[in-house]
Amino acid sequence: xxxxxxxxxxxxxxxxLGFIFYKYLSDKEVQFFERIGMTEDKIKNLxxxxxxxxxxxxxxxxxxxxxxxxxxxxxxxxxxxxxxDVRKALSAFDRLIGQSHKKLFTNIFKTLQTGLSKLGSxxxxxxxxxxxxxxxxxxxxxxxxxxxxxxxxxxxxxISMFAANAGKKAGEFYTPQEVSRILAxxxxxxxxxxxxxxxxxxxxxxxxxxxxxxxxxxxIFGQEKNPTTYNLARMNxxxxxxxxxxxxxxxxxxxxxxxxxxxxxxxx
Length: 268
What we know:
- By secondary structure, the protein is mainly α.
- The protein has helices spanning 9-35, 40-44, 51-60, 71-77, 83-95, 102-105, 110-115, 123-138, 150-165, 177-187, 206-214, 227-239; strands at 196-199, 219-224, 247-251.
- It contains twelve helices and three strands.
- Helix 11 (206-214) links the parallel strand 1 (196-199) and strand 2 (219-224).
- Helix 1 (9-35) packs across helix 8 and helix 4 packs across helix 8.
């Protein structure tokens, strides 16, 4: 509530979702290095200067986060944590995106980066607000043992909750889950398996994900005009476990600059 008084409810969503996504990427990297046999001490020494580890992560994950910039390290810092830690980590993230994943990750944290100053008029106010927020996010269970993607579920829930409270500005509507389920079922009638699904105005991508799920589609395509919502769509795909090679979301006005031209799709 303290934060909500400073910024619009709908903008607040971008902070929560941005930090949830950063935690997801941080945890994913730690799990990745653990799987290849790295000890806790070695992970604590992960730095940008260790080119072999950086390159390996960039190839396999598409990004590299040094130990100092991990979400869990922010939490460990307790009172030593500062808003500058977030700024430093996000600009390092942009710098260290793997060559093959540039399209996926470039500017994905832009809304979060440019919005940090809205969290308070001083750095200590901003730090206090972020510390509270990341403390809450840290409590979300993400051990991967759940039978559905907890993060993806929470993410989608937040998008729908905030959309309900944001008013319907500029024709941006969030499709309620019940409606998107019916739409997805209609569009997939008679198809046990779709090759692909496409949404020319995909928003945060929740309807696309549901249609892909119901139609067992391998590939997901979408286009979204609003840059902030486009970032959410890319995050949403990854949080729901869609492989980078299986989706393509473009940013732009579909009517003026259709990114997919004459491509044929099984379901639109």
